[in-house]
Amino acid sequence: MGRDPNPEMLASPILALAFSGDPSPMLFRKHIEELDMTAAEVRSHLIKLQAERALAVDTGVAESALYLADIDEELEVCRELYTWSAVTEIATLRAEMFGPQTG
Description:
Elements: H1 28-35, H2 39-59, H3 65-98
């Protein structure tokens, strides 16, 4: 109960690497580098997932609890990934412009 019907196939395969390995938040930087996605690209994917979820609710597909749970799980990971990638890009830009912050 509560398992994906096919754990090999996510609702959207773009974040498959984010689900591999240790899901510790400290490893999101590693996932960002592996995915080679900018914060804007992650945000774009997040918007597509939100639209996919809304469509599922509107069309009644959301009645499949497993499908909706899969999308919700990927949305959660994608939101965290977006936050981490945006913060990393901001810190990198700041360090490039003004030098690394220490202290």
